[in-house]
Amino acid sequence: xxxxxxxxxxxxxxxxxxxxxxxxxxxxxxxxxxxxxxxxxxxxxxxxxxxxxxxxxxxxxxxxxxxxxxxxxxxxxxxxxxxxxxxxxxxxxxxxxxxxxxxxxxxxxxxxxxxxxxxxxxxxxxxxxxxxxxxxxxxxxxxxxxxxxxxxxxxxxxxxxxxxxxxxxxxxxxxxxxxxxxxxxxxxxxxxxxxxxxxxxxxxxxxxxxxxxxxxxxxxxxxxxxxxxxxxxxxxxxxxxxxxxxxxxxxxxxxxxxxxxxxxxxxxxxxxxxxxxxxxxxxxxxxxxxxxxxxxxxxxxxxxxxxxxxxxxxxxxxxxxxxxxxxxxxxxxxxxxxxxxxxxxxxxxxxxxxxxxxxxxxxxxxxxxxxxxxxxxxxxxxxxxxxxxxxxxxxxxxxxxxxxxxxxxxxxxxxxxxxxxxxxxxxxxxxxxxxxxxxxxxxxxxxxxxxxxxxxxxxxxxxxxxxxxxxxxxxxxxxxxxxxxxxxxxxxxxxxxxxxxxxxxxxxxxxxxxxxxxxxxxxxxxxxxxxxxxxxxxxxxxxxxxxxxxxxxxxxxxxxxxxxxxxxxxxxxxxxxxxxxxxxxxxxxxxxxxxxxxxxxxxxxxxxxxxxxx
Length: 614
Fold this sequence. Notes:
Shape: globular
Structural class: mainly alpha
Radius of gyration: 26 Å
């Protein structure tokens, strides 16, 4: 709750610091005619638009920090986890989280670094970027329809505040009995949160969008679409990652014939699970856009922004579900290290399996929110670019600049624009490659260190000598800090370089249809737009493959550990451990980092768009 609240307070504070109080003063002091909204003052509307574009930097800063928090935390936790599992469980045959394993402390610490801090930073930047993007689109909507009033600019913030209240209520109703399924209790809290979010959304619409009169109900419908999208993503992710359903059971079945068939079955499930999310995202964008068009010009884009707000209205509860995962994982580790009875470990294993599902749910939820947020930020990017072009054009031909309608899309038939899209797709795969290789490289050092300690200190296995836990912690810390620099720099440098350099391409060579358009090149702006959208599409698909594939492998191992197919220490279990190890950097490093990359591309292009205009 604190993470979402801090995002909300940060945007609100910056809005008033950069002149929000002046908007209220101007609106209240300006004489107005009967029936005219107090907030329809053109000067107030212009100031609101300027402020919204100024605080884009807040979203960029949140995305930039989240990239390193999620990427670095993911490298840390999975390098330790892979090293601990391969040497401890597979080679030495000792239980997971056994205190004799020198990498066990690094593994437990990594759960907090990657899953708690990293995912918290991810959802913080999601809500921050979405708030800023929705405020920009609200300002544009009010410019087109002054009767709605500038108070619509506060709609994203109020909707988010009501969502926090709904999440608190949802958390309070979670309880279960010993014999019941813990997932049922968590789902019950999510249902209550969803209902509370719907009521809060209705209140926000009635309070701040009353200037739209009867059309405000179309915006409420857009919000309902977003909430339904959130629900659908949670269910789809649960289906593909929980052991009660076909995909995970098929992977567990494949483990009976070895690690190779386990990998094949798991990767097939990972590829399969991209279809349903794409259908849901497509329906959400089309439905919310259609609802918004009933309000008038630019209403469709704001409709998609409202849908994104609806999807993120339950972000507080979803983050709480995600944190449940590392808490139960570490609880199991403490139980094992303190040599508690086997029946207690079975209880924590059960909770840990549920925690794996809740972590997967959060990642699926983050993918969906990233897709919707990227679409609205892409629209905000085109609006901002159009505004800059009109300002430059007005200095030489004011009438033509006013008559120009602005960007309604980009022409991918232009060679530089097509190339920009290719670069965006390649950037996603290159980034994921760096993240996965970083885990492998750091894990190799951990494996060598654990083997060295077992070899040089035979008393560790006998329980007469103590492992050097600090050495493994030091290895993964240094590995994470070093390895995250290159992918982080690539994510920032590539879109800026494309926009800046492509702006120098000769306009006459690549723009063949310039009638009615600006008298100067916009190739840099259009190429970055293609990079942003194609990169977003590729990122959504690849992140879904990595997240759900890794989660399914992990829970297939947990499913076997319940006693099916031979249970622990069987050949099927050893094969499942290999699949789980392969899936670790997928689901906890590369996949979650791609969520952040998608939104970082959107915010960085908004911040640096003036550099792309020549």
